[in-house]
Amino acid sequence: MNNLKKTLLGIIGVICCYLSVSSILQLTTLPEILRISPGQEFKLKVRYPLSFYQDPEDGGENQLKAQASQILTDRSLLNCKDRNRFDFQLRLFGAIPLKKVRVEVAEPPQVIPGGQAIGVLFSTTGVVVVGYIPLKGVDQKKAFPAQDAGLKIGDIILKINDLPINRVNDVERIIKNYAPEQKSLRLTINRNGKIIQTYIQPVLGYGPDEDSEPQYRLGIYIEDPAAGVGTLTFIEPNSHQFAALGHRITHFAGKQNIPFQKGEIVLADISGVRTGKPGDPGEKIGIFSADQKAIGTIEKNCRFGIYGTLSSRFPVGSKPVPIAYSSQIRLGPAEIYTVIKGRQIRKFRVEIIKIFRQNLPRDKGIVLKVVDPLLLKETGGIIQGMSGSPIIQNRKLVGAVTHVFVNDPTKGYGVLAEWMINEINWNKITKTKKAS
Fold it and tell me: How many C-beta atoms lie closer than 10 Å to residue 181's C-beta?
């Protein structure tokens, strides 16, 4: 009898564990806000012991295809014809409230898909430390001034002796002028967003090339901040605001944000591509110059890309398409718009092979696979410089290409357009509409 009780308790325990794990997984993937279009049918899928009930605080003025007030688990179907919103409670065993889910019914914003190759130019503060240089002093002793001063890879040097640093040449000039008379120099650096100061003792000696003349050195490799090639994702037609890249521009392998003062985008010509291979991502070879006329100014650099306003000179010829809500994205065929030669935007076939149901705004919302024979032949798949290429499915903007799988360049990640559109400055759109 005791063995039977133990067996039954064990079975009950396994069932409870399964239900608990299943419930937790459903909770983590269920969004707090779900957006759908008027007339769109959408299933809210949850399994026992979870179920949906209309929130008692909701006014009940919403049109639902459901039985009574409860939304029945696997058969639950939303179909709202009017613009509205309504709230649900997710309950455990039909009694314990766990989470509120708001469903918003509205026409999706309309945007103009991009695809243009752009050069990104930042006017920034500071230079980034990207490596150390082994030094040998005039006394033939090895020296490590940067390590001794506590400098780290990824640090951004903002000032030397309170003199601002904007370019690599500024560092060389200040060292040349001050090091012969001062034993140490005061550095102001940005390390992961924290401003700190340290002192460094320049060494009179030689770098890797011992044939050069001895000079005062810090023993570091430094670079000017970002300037590179990317792709324009979309344009908001009323205010001419743009989104591009689909991800943040950072210093040194994504470790630090760029503290930019101002930035611009220019059109780039793609003169060639380096084909991607497993373990070796390819890249677009773009030509642009800081002397070119800018087509837009950059106002924001965030995790979903760079955002700003296009100049009035930039021609906007394509027709707007709606943003695809995450509830409208499907596995299957899609297209990306991008440039692989000159400035010609071309459409290439891809497949959306995985969709991540995200409960909060995050990057990497979908996985896509390149299936277009021409793109595979020319680039090997997704390459650097395609970041921001718009992904179109069923005449809607699904998102933008952001990352390539290093070991399989035919595959990559995309960020959802639903998250990208939230970064637009809606005040500008309102003002533009009032002015017109």
Answer: 6
Q: How far is CA 222 from CA 126, 127, 130, 278, in A?
A: 10, 6, 6, 30
For residue 21, tell me if it sits in a domain.
no
pLDDT of residue 92: 73
Active site residues: 247, 372, 387
Helix (H, G, I), strand (E, B) or coil at 93: coil
- Which of 165, 193, 223 terminates a domain? The answer is 223
pLDDT tens per residue, range 321-342:
999 998 889 999 999 999 999 9
E strand map for 80-184: 84-92, 96-105, 110-113, 117-124, 127-132, 135-137, 142-143, 156-160, 163-164
Number of domains in the chain: 3
Give φ, ψ of 26 to 5 degrees: -65, -35
Rounded to two decimals, what is the model's pTM?
0.71
Taking Cα atoms as reference points, which of 377, 394, 368, 380 lies closest to residue 246? 368
Residue 38: count of CB within 10 angstroms of its CB? 13
* Full residue range of the structural domain in which residue 64 is found: 27-107
Residues 155 and 303 in one domain: no
Sheet (strand 84-92) strand order: 33-36, 96-105, 84-92, 50-54, 70-71
**Rounded CA separation 386/338 (Å):** 7
pLDDT-derived band of residue 366, with 50, 70 and 90 as boundaries? Answer: very high
- Residues 339 and 270: beta-carbon distance below 8 Å: yes
- 81 plus 216 within the same structural domain: no
CATH number at residue 76: 2.60.40
Question: 302 and 405: one domain?
Answer: yes
**Block residue for tokens 């409860």:** 70
